Amino acid sequence: MEVVSGSKTLLIPAWLATRPGRSARREDLAEFLWPDQERAGALRALRQALFFLSRHAGDLFDKDDEVVALTADRLRVDSLEFDEAVRQEDYRRALELHRGRFASGLERRVGVEVEHWIEEQNARISVAIEVAYAHLISEATSTGNQADAEQLARKFLDDNPSDENRHQVLIRTLKAIGSEVAALRAFEAYRTMVDREEGEQLPGDLERTMERLRAELTAPRITEMPPVMGELREFPDHQGAPQTLRLRLALVGALGLVLVLTGILLRSRPAGLDTLAGVRASFLVATEVDGVEGFQEITIRGGRFDVREAGPTTPHYAVPGPIGAVVAYAEEASDGWNVAVREGQRVKRTLTSFPGDEFPLGWSPDGRYLLITRVRLDASNRSRIHTLHFFDLAGDSLHTITALTSTEWPTASWSPDGSQIAFTADVAGSPDIFVVDFDGGNLKNLTHHPGHDRSPAWAPDRSAIAFVSSREGGADLYLVRPDGSDIQQVTKLTRDEALPMWLSPTALLFLAGGDQPEFWTLDVAGGRATRIEPAPRITGVAALSRVEPTWLERLRILPQPDIGSPGQHMALVVEALGPRGDQVGFGPVPMRWTSRDTSVARIGPDGALELTGEGTARVVVSAGGWRTDSLLLPVLPLRISEIEPVFEEQWNHGLDTTRWHPIGEPGPELRSRGGGIDGLAFANNGDAFFESGAVTVERFDLRPGLTVEVEGRVPFTGQLHQVFGFQLVPESTSDSVLAYGRASPIVGIRLTGPSDGSGGETAIVTATGKHLLPMPRGVGSWRSYVLQVTAKGVVQFLIDGRLYWQAADPLPVGHLTTAQLALGFSSVGTRILHGTVRVYSAQKYRLPDPPNTPQN
Q1: Topology of domain 77-225+232-241, CATH
Q2: SS3 for 338?
Q3: How far apart are CA 546 and CA 283, in angstroms?
Q4: Quick one: how far is CA 325 from the chain centroid?
Q5: What pLDDT, on a 0 to 100 scale, did the predictor assign at position 210?
Q6: What pLDDT does residue 734 have?
Q7: Residue 341 near residue 351, CB atoms below 8 Å
Q8: 234-262 pLDDT, tens per residue?
Q9: What's the CA gap between 425 and 405, in Å, rounded?
Q10: Digit-coded pLDDT (tens) for 549-570
Q11: Burial, 224: exposed, middle or buried (Cβ in 10 Å; 0-12, 13-18, 19+)?
Q12: 370-388 burial, b if ≥16 CB within 10 A, otherwise e?
């Protein structure tokens, strides 16, 4: 963004431009820019600032009573264009867009929070500038464009001549392009600056850096820069999410120059096992040395990496199991290759004996299921076709996972929780990475690329899948999210990579080197690849054991209500438990919900349950078919108590100020009920900024329970600022807070009309947050809306005498014992009407006692 000068007012569009959706709540914006003022004063200052801006750019903002947003396509934000140029690797364009420090001149004239924000923007931009220069200098050097490389390096230094790193970049760039004399002169200028700033006694690390730099300058020049350790940098984007930049030239002080190719890692020099710190795991690797197959065991503990022989010669195509000494392998028979398993030296059993060939691919994390590929000839009897299956060792049965076939040998990996399988298939001509649920549902192609993708491996927290791909010519490691998004290349070594295996959520073990492989680790978060030691010819890697079992053992639906009522909506969630009974800390496990009888209950894919009729609701959830849990819920009608209200208002005598205290300007009024119905109704007149309504003078006791019943008619028109509802508020709530719609209720309901393509919103609002519900049907007609608080503090919302929603936990009312009833919100462009109001000093609607129904 262009340099901002003047007052805080001009920071409003700048700050909004860096927010998600280019919008923010008025309250957040006011608190950010005027943190030292009272809330009302900050909001007043914000209104004045927005008024000033609107006079000079009337259509710059979209405003309502809660949110301020930049109008789409009305403002050109060059800082956003700058970031987009960096993300698209258009680095020359990025440098063209850079026009100095962000908000220059305002850093010391604003609050601490704004000052920190400005500093963050400048730090983010500074890193991106380093990235741009790094890439362009490296590119010019590698392509032999010496003049461009020198010009860029000198411009980079001129922008900040006191930066030691930039001096080192210029020196090394001049050395790399063959300008040794210029490089020595630049070194002398650098040494003079350091001596002037540090004095005669240099810090030890800086002195070592200078000596290394001097040695580099006096050494013979080499045509190709030697491979050194890779590094990744992260900086926050405008939404605060980390954006990883793979630098060509990382500028580091005491460590000297680090060359990194954009988007990849160069081959690393051998280093310590920092990546393995805290990792505790054991793995078996299937090996082949001089034609002899065997196992080796890799143990990692306390940063130590040990390899030892593990057992005698193994059978063909051996796949070690994750638990115990079970091994799956292929044995040759008269009908082809069959799959068998053994424990130790004892053959346990043969699993398959079909015509053709079957081979093992991998185990489920609990060791019960074995992935198998079946190999057959196609109709022409010329090509081999692979299909993917798993064998249930406990059920002694073979199951087809997917109908996809592959002409190339498939590779596969089970997710750590057991719910999904990643595998390869070449249905589009070359192998892609696919993901499928345990029961064969939700099949998805993650990679969609003509390159050769293989060897998928799940991260322990399911956040990513590592795989090997030849899409850039070699065999490099990539990461992809389980939904197919955010594919990233994470290595590019001088030799082929293979067989990735996760050691932790941020550390990968893999092989590189072809016929003479070496073990490598990759610190995914830090971007550092480390060579460990030479390795035998490894044909497969599988987890032998982990310190803590990680698979998903069982599911538990929460909550577990005893009874429900027709019309009720509830949000069900799933607790995933591991084999030790503790919660499994995986990412989003793909849950699948079903209802056995939709005449009693319907359920959405996110666990939103709607009880539709009397009977017994039977709901089942599964982790992609891997594990299941069920809920058996009796659904019965409510019991209604015949009690008299302690407060009733039918509006026949106008707005009685001895009973109601009006709020807002313009204030509420009474209108005809309409629709051929006699009598009057209460109508609020809230606009885009102020809300209007009325609050009861009388206070109601919450301790025995309270039922508030309000008739309402809400003819929403699709315009903004149309809200129907009512709420129980503390006695101390001020009129001004109510008028501004900023009251913190004990509990209330808000029905916000649809607008701008949204479907509207129904919310139960409390002091601690809000619970979103589906929009009720028929809000344009007269309905009875009930807000009920039980004696135990449980909130219930009813429509026309049917339970619509019930809170899972009671209200944290604390010392609150009484409350007032407030009606009305905003009603721009429509007539939002409140009919008869009744308050009962008890719980009028009750769920029946649950029958003694056994739970499945």
Answers
A1: 1.25.40
A2: strand
A3: 8
A4: 38
A5: 63
A6: 59
A7: yes
A8: 333 333 333 333 222 222 222 222 222 22
A9: 6
A10: 678 888 999 999 999 999 999 9
A11: exposed
A12: bbbbbbbeeeeeeeeebbb
